[in-house]
Amino acid sequence: MLPQQPLKARPDGPASPSLGIRLPGQSAKKAAPEGRLS
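Below the sequence we write its predicted structure tokens.
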């Protein structure tokens, strides 16, 4: 439960790099600029 909370708690910052590993480079690049602007 602890590892799941931090990932969902900050899906805009720390999750960006983590999601990039799971999602393709294209998705990570599109989500990175959006999350940073937000």
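The radius of gyration is 10 Å.
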